[in-house]
Amino acid sequence: MNAYAATPERFPALVLNADFRPLSYYPLSLWSWQESVKAVFLDRVNIVSEYDRFVRSPTFEMRLPSVVSLKTYVKPALYPAFTRFNVFLRDRFSCQYCGSKDDLTFDHLIPRSRGGQTRWDNVVTACAPCNLSKGGFLAEQAGMRPMQEPYRPTVFELHRNGRLFPPNYLHQSWLDYLYWDTELEP
């Protein structure tokens, strides 16, 4: 094992709510080893699983947590914040006009120059070429209809979509709490 792989920074902890569900799938709810150790000392979490890696001080030794669960249930919000990332996640990182997954931006169906607002029901994911092609026209005028009408998603819909995009790395101890069909890194 090289020195980089052995550093504690390579040992994040999966954070579960008190019901043992991840707080978030995309991005995956992870804490740094420092955050997880601090939460253990403050008695805010239960350690569910540990790495075979220790942190030490002159008077203390502790295995690094790989999975922690909150002691107090955090009720998830029903609706997510409007952000560019969440629009992309709602639209599954695909241009709503041509299906491209490259060079993504977001497009206002009713352009801002015509009074359109930046909100869930007026914004779709668009690749830069489609966005430039539509320009300041209404979608109908440009002959471009989105594949899916824009809408305000729930947090649960974003979590469902997030499961379609698993992270590059999943530790073995996390698998019982995550629902991706993927193989682990060796």
Give the topology.
Blueprint: H1 3-6, E1 13-16, E2 30-31, H2 33-41, E3 45-57, E4 60-70, H3 84-90, E5 104-108, E6 123-127, H4 128-134, H5 155-162
Parallel strand pairs: 1-4
Antiparallel strand pairs: 1-2, 3-4, 5-6
Number of strands: 6
Report the C-alpha radius of gyration, rounded. 21 Å
Please state roughly what percent of the residues sit in beta strands, choosing from under 5%, 5-15%, 15-25%, 25-35%, 35-45% or over 45%: 15-25%
SS element count, helices: 5
The pLDDT mean sits at 88
Structural class: alpha+beta
Provide the helix percentage: 10-25%
Weakly predicted, low-confidence segments: 1-6, 181-186
Strand order of the largest sheet: 2-1-4-3
What's the multimeric state? single chain
Distance between the termini: 13 Å
Summarize the helix and strand pattern as letters.
Answer: HEEHEEHEEHH
Q: Biggest sheet, in brief? A: 4 strands, mixed
Which word captures the global form?
A: elongated
Describe what this molecule looks like in 3D.
With 186 residues, this protein is of the alpha+beta class. It is built from five helices and six strands, in the order αββαββαββαα. The protein has helices at 3-6, 33-41, 84-90, 128-134, 155-162; strands at 13-16, 30-31, 45-57, 60-70, 104-108, 123-127. The chain has a four-stranded mixed sheet with strand order 2-1-4-3. Strands 5-6 form a two-stranded antiparallel sheet. A hairpin with a 2-residue loop joins strand 3 (45-57) and strand 4. The longest helix has 9 residues, at 33-41. Mean pLDDT is 88; it is low at 1-6 and 181-186.
